[in-house]
Amino acid sequence: MPYDLKEIAAISGMPGLYRLVRPTRAGVIIEALNDKGSRSVAAAQNKVSLLQEISIYTQDYDQTVPLTEVFDRIHQQHGADLGLSNKSNDQELVSFMEGIIPDYDRERVYLSDIKKLVQWYNIVSQRLEYQAPATEDETTAQDATEQDATEQKAPPTPVAADTAPKKKTTKKMAEPAAGEAMSTAGIIAAPEADTAPGNPEAAVAKPAKKAAPKKKAE
C-alpha cells in the first residue's frame, strides 16, 4: 500500500496522530508522529481510531472510499507537499476535496472532516515513506521470475558406470506408470493355496495302486 496505516491512529482528546507500539494493562503505549517522537500511554477509556479503518462517504449511500486510497489520490495529484493546512480558507478546502473525491457526500462529510483529512495527510506524508504501487508490467515480471526460479532443478548426480557382467534377467510383468492408480495399492495379493479346504479342485491326486498279480491256473 502507498502509506502503511495499519498502526497509525487518532486518539480522542489528544492532538495529532500516533503510532501504536504495544498494549499494556492500563491501555496502549503510543508514539507521537512528530519531531520529538515522544512515547506515552493512552488510557483504555480513550477512543483509538485506526486510520486504515476510516473511509470517506460518497453520494452512493453504500459506497465509501478508504482513507488509504484517499491518501494515494492526494499523493498522485499533489505529492508529499500538499500546500494546504487545516487553517486554509473554506473555499480552498472544498475545492481540494472535490478534486480528490468528486462524488463525496456533501451532507455527511463536514468541513471539519476535510480539515482533519488535510491535517492527517500532512503528518503522514512527512513521517511515513510513500510506497508506489507496483505496475502491471512489474507484477507480471515478478511472477515470471518467481516461476522460473521454481522450475529450475538441480543438475543430475553423475552415476558410475556398472562394469559388472550383466545377469540374465527374466521377463517381469509390466509395472504401472508413475502416478497411475493401482487397484491393489501397490501390493499384489498372493494366490490362495490350492489346498484350501472346501475347494473341490484342491484334492491332491493320489498315485494309482498297482494291480495284484494274477494267480496261475493249476
Automatic annotation (TrEMBL):
What sections of the sequence does the record tag as coiled-coil?
Answer: none
State where composition is biased (Acidic residues).
135-149
Domain DUF5606 per the UniProt entry, residue ranges: 5-51
In Swiss-Prot or TrEMBL terms, this protein is called: DUF5606 domain-containing protein
* UniProt region (Disordered), positions on chain: 133-218
**What sequence ranges are listed for the domain DUF6852?**
54-123
- Name the residue ranges with Basic residues bias: 207-218
